[in-house]
Amino acid sequence: MKLWQISARDMRRWLPLVIAVGFTGFALATDPSGANTGGIGNITDPTPDTPLQVDDVAQILGQTRVALNLVWVMFAMFLVMFMQAGFALVEAGFTRAKNAGHTVMMNLLIYGLGVLGFLAVGFALQMGGSGGNIAAFGGGQNLNCQLGFTIGDQKWGFLGCTGFGLAGNSYDVATFALFFFHLVFLDTALTIPTGALAERWRSSAFIWYGLGASMLIYPIFANWAWGGGWLSTLGVNLGLGNGYVDFAGSGVVHLTGAVMSLTGIAVLGPRIGRFNRDGTSRAINGHNMPLAILGTFILAFGWFGFNAGSTLAGTDIRFVTVAVSAMICSAAGMIAAALYTSAINGRIDVGMVANGMLGGLVANTASGAFLGAPASVVVGMVAGLLVVWGTELLERLRIDDAVGAIPVHGICGIWGLLAVGIFADGTYGRGFNGVSGAVTGLLYGNGAQLLAQLIGIAANILWVAPTSYLLFRAIDRFGGGMRVKPQAEIEGLDYHELTVPAYPRDDDNEPKPLPQSNTDLIPAER
């Protein structure tokens, strides 16, 4: 067994050079303007003396295809970016008024932290070894440095090593498009803990979390699944179906965010007053349910970009099926939660209905490309029930998730990954992860796919849980503490962590009396 690309003995010597190459590049075979992407670079305008040739037409069609794919993916990712607003509204509505400003601030700030952390380091670690995996964009072959191991003839990748800062040989249209695509997915994962850990999280500690998660924790697992890493090659190397299949990120995005939420709660502890001394729970209701429902609809709207846009190509018209499957799953999850809470409580729990809808979408995120309509109903309904049962389980375990993020993104994320291994019907996914056959699950004769999914779930938890726990513990010990003081939590984080609260109190806006003389401006001697 030997280290692939860079030997262990030379790692320390050559790592600075690898990083330098990632930032600068030696051979700048890139296309920043997009003029040559898709094979259009040598075409000249036809004239009577030089009529357009068949090869020219082929190149024009190639450029048009790439342009259509880029337009589709960029539009879809604009929708995903807008989901940040949906998260902010959902989390603010599900929390108390005295903390609403702080909650939306975290949703706002994580966007900037994610962009800069992913730009500097995260993207290179995640996609720096993906090579030509973005043929739909007409390029990307410059992302060709992957660290890993070779065992026999099998390559097992672990992290990329080019593309730092999108500089040098990463200054390319296709690479920039790929960066934007994965950036908005990263920001979605990182914003999940902002809801789960709300109402007790110090702003400065949150900033350190955002940088650590965007630069290291998320990108490395994403490399294993999407960047040519070892999980994606389970099919090629071990014959386990198409390898670990996570079409739009039930695991990479949602389970990662939920696991980080769980370890963060383990460090922070529950909110003051959430549990009684005997272990029973006390409800802490959100202050604005219409705000939360508006955010839920914004998320559902953006999710069409999230899932359907993951085809990475407007020319892959399977995106229609993916979008409809997402709609069906969301509706089934919503209705299942509504019927169950009505049957148990005698009244519908609107918060559970909203989370049931989101849980259906999370489950669809990995599986939606491989499901027909009946299977989408089943997957969505199970997800809606899992949200309710998962919330009840967390309360029994005295785990204080302020908005229900762990059941929605974690439990339903796992269910979505398992749904691929169970319900994938073999009608889509030929060539996925380098395997010639389509993605096929247990019900259609391929139990190996389910095993690959289980390995991916275990790998996610075994990587994200310890690394995020260590990050939170380090912040708690060396970064000034993770949690606000009890007085700040009782009075509201808006009044201790921000300059302006979401809902100013009446006396906040009352004009202060003017000084009677200049001497009134001088502090009294002690």
Description of the structure:
A hairpin with a 2-residue loop joins strand 2 and strand 3 (154-160). 53% of the residues are buried. The protein has a single domain (61-488), classed as Ammonium transporter fold (Orthogonal Bundle). It contains 14 helices and 3 strands. Mean pLDDT is 88; it is low at 6-11, 17-28, 40-44 and 520-526. Strands 1-2-3 form a 3-stranded antiparallel β-sheet. By secondary structure, the chain is mostly helical. The radius of gyration is 25 Å and the shape is globular. Helix 2 runs antiparallel to helix 3 (100-127), helix 8 (289-308) packs antiparallel against helix 9 (319-345) and helix 11 (373-396) runs antiparallel to helix 12. The protein has helices at 11-24, 54-94, 100-127, 173-196, 203-226, 234-238, 250-268, 289-308, 319-345, 350-367, 373-396, 405-423, 447-478, 486-491; strands spanning 2-4, 146-151, 154-160.
Write the layout of secondary structure elements.
Blueprint (H helix, E strand, L loop, with lengths): L1 E3 L6 H14 L29 H41 L5 H28 L18 E6 L2 E7 L12 H24 L6 H24 L7 H5 L11 H19 L20 H20 L10 H27 L4 H18 L5 H24 L8 H19 L23 H32 L7 H6 L35
Antiparallel strand pairs: 1-2, 2-3
Name the helicity range. Answer: 55-70%
Low-confidence stretches: 6-11, 17-28, 40-44, 520-526
Total individual domains: 1
Name the strands of the widest sheet in spatial order. 1-2-3
Rg, alpha carbons? 25 Å
Q: Biggest sheet: strands, sense, closure? A: 3 strands, antiparallel
